[in-house]
Amino acid sequence: MSKSDEIKQQILDLVRAYYAETFGDEPFVPGETAVPVSGKLFDAAEMTNLVDSSLEFWLTTGRYADQFERELARTVGVRHASLCNSGSSANLLALTALTSPSLGDRQLRPGDEVVTVAAGFPTTVNPIIQNQLTPVFLDIDLDTHNIAVENLADAVTPRTKAIMLAHTLGNPFNLDVVMEVANQHDLWLVEDNCDALGSTYNGRVTGSFGHLATSSFYPAHHITTGEGGAVFTNRPQLKKIVESFRDWGRDCWCPPGVDNTCGKRFEWQLGDLPYGYDHKYIYSHIGYNLKMTDMQAAVGLAQLKKLPEFIAARKRNWQRLYDGLKPFEEFLILPQPTPSSDPSWFGFLLTVRPGAPFSRNQIVGYLEERKIATRLLFGGNLIRQPAYQNIPHRVVGPLTNTDIVMNLTFWIGVFPGLTPAMIDYILETFTAFFSHAA
To answer: Which of 27-31, 86-90, 426-430 is least confident?
Structure first.
């Protein structure tokens, strides 16, 4: 072992000791300790990976990113995973890839329509608008909070070219119907899988159905790299396009620090450039720089090993909340998994029944005052948000349930950091609230 290796090992041993000394568990005190909706869970493995990567000082995408991409692709069951700097960037890259001229007749062009829902997160819809495409909004159902598929076929016109949908809070949308419509009309399908890593539909992992799919590694999600995301695909052509848009729009596919993978770096002639122009500086797309750093990937690699236990904990917590709140269905609409699915839950959605003797604000306020964090279902009805007032769009059918969600729905956490004592406290607090509300 070299002297530098010996010093490095001492540093990593100290990091493990630092973790043990600094990040011990604190006792839960009902009513005083916060019960969050989400949060990161990590141990010394993430910290040592992070420090190991930082000591190499590569900084940009490197060996940890390569390994993380391979293991992510294997986990989701696809050929390719391309890392980027956030789940929102992943959505932007996935949809923008479909605007590439290299797709010929399948290229999305300004004015083309993309079917989605209004009850979603903004950055599921924003890439549609940012690429000068037209979102077509459909309603959701109140059991799964996913697209109400009965209007999907009617939403398709000759201008419709793609479908872009999220699996709401980990609950897969009806992939049988969505895939059938997409295949029948030759539409692209983009799965926003940011809240659903590890969910399955008919035994198959979500994120593997669409032509493209995305994931987020923000601290709230199933695994974290701090900031970070990924785009998944089985198609080598789409992988190349995604990575071109991610990496400044360049035509070259050499990774950082590598030259002349194609073997003819100075023998290309593209566009109106002179023959032999350096391929590393030829740009085939109007791109971005949305790469992930190797230090982030190092954290993700350690997190990915914990994913099975994280998923199991989320399912346990969700089921305990469901069983504990079922006696109060006269007041609340409880969430239901989509038929044929096994969700890797992101949160526990609740809708106050119209006509209940209390408002959403009242129950949310009661919970928050007692340190139980809540969240709304993102933007509620996006087309009622200030940013979307004047966008070109089309609506198919009434958005009745979307407005109900906007006014009456909220969610609480199921993430693995919630202990059995915290779940007990959540249920006791609901019980106390309903004893007064009734």
So the answer is: 27-31
